[in-house]
Write a structure and sequence with these properties.
Elongation Factor Tu (Ef-tu), domain 3, six-stranded antiparallel beta barrel, 14 strands, EC 2.7.1.26
Length: 297
């Protein structure tokens, strides 16, 4: 896959393209339905998406929670067999591009065909409609994918993750939900308890409810089993800021600064404040045993 990154004016392409356009956060089964329609003998397949997410710019949000990081999105699109990925810078200038200017950009990229969802809009203030594009390109419209009469969308999947319905989210994503984060320094309380944890910087991600989860962990290309806690450590070392930390079974390495990927496999229990350190330790040992049992199934 050829990755084109930067401003629209920096993009150069001479081959005819069949393109789909969108944010593609999560790259769920609805997005894949679009990408699967890109294969034509007369053209290369292409995806046009934006970074950062337009909502972060348009709503001036310091933090916009996503289902996939930009790195994950690039990898997932490449796995779909796409020939070209255009990753366009999104800022106020990009947001001000008129529908006529946007059509001109697509023509300059040698787009001959567009594959779009039924509600696709484009250009400044979303004034552009599919009909505007039909006057200039061949347009293939792909109907919405529905789950239990609800349109599959990133917003729907976010709601499922926030509410802890990870099995449903997994079905709509077409894969196990995962997050990536850099291992950062914590207070090392877990080490004093004999259960050292890796604290993760995952502020940009949509997170499921607080609690303990059975997870898969990828560190330096190797896969491990882990118990992950999301919450505020109410029993020992209470934190005002929500923390995400993982205990990795059969692992004894220093990995500060490394990027770790976490795959959510099963919710184990809610976060709880215990009466004593001993009561907490008893529960933590039970969590580890539960994880070992689940990993052997």
């Amino acid at each position: 896959m050829i990755l084109h990154k930067g401003r629209f004016e920096s993009f150069v392409n001479r081959k005819p393209l069949t393109m789909t356009i969108g944010n593609f956060d999560g790259l769920h089964i609805g997005h894949r339905a679009l990408i699967n329609k890109l294969k034509y003998e007369d053209s290369d397949s292409a995806v046009l998406t934006f970074y950062p997410h337009p909502m972060k710019v348009l709503r001036e949000m310091s933090q916009h929670q996503v289902v996939t990081s930009i790195e994950q999105k690039i990898e997932l699109i490449e796995q779909c067999g796409v020939n070209h990925l255009f990753l366009a810078d999104f800022d106020r200038k990009t947001a001000s591009i008129t529908k006529e200017e946007f059509i001109g950009i697509l023509k300059s990229l040698n787009v001959i065909r567009l594959v779009l969802g039924v509600d696709f809009r484009f250009g400044q203030h979303a004034k552009g409609h599919i009909q505007d594009l039909m006057d200039e390109f061949e347009v293939v419209i792909v109907n919405d994918i529905k789950h239990l009469e609800t349109r599959v969308s990133t917003t729907y999947i976010k709601d499922l993750i926030y509410s802890g319905e990870l099995d449903k989210a997994e079905r709509l994503l077409g894969r196990t939900y995962s997050i990536r984060g850099e291992v950062i320094h914590g207070d090392k309380v877990g080490r004093t308890l004999g259960m050292p944890t890796a604290n993760l910087d995952v502020d940009s991600y949509v997170l499921p409810p607080n609690g303990v989860y059975f997870v898969g962990v990828i560190v330096k290309g190797q896969t491990y089993t882990g118990a992950l806690n999301i919450g505020y450590n109410p029993t020992i070392n209470y934190s005002v800021k929500k923390r995400v930390e993982v205990y990795i079974l059969d692992f004894d390495q220093t990995i500060y600064g490394e990027t770790v990927e976490i795959f959510f496999k099963k919710y184990l229990r809610a976060e709880k404040q215990y009466k004593s350190k001993d009561e907490l330790m008893t529960q933590l040992r039970k969590d580890i045993e539960d994880v070992k049992i689940l990993s052997s199934i």
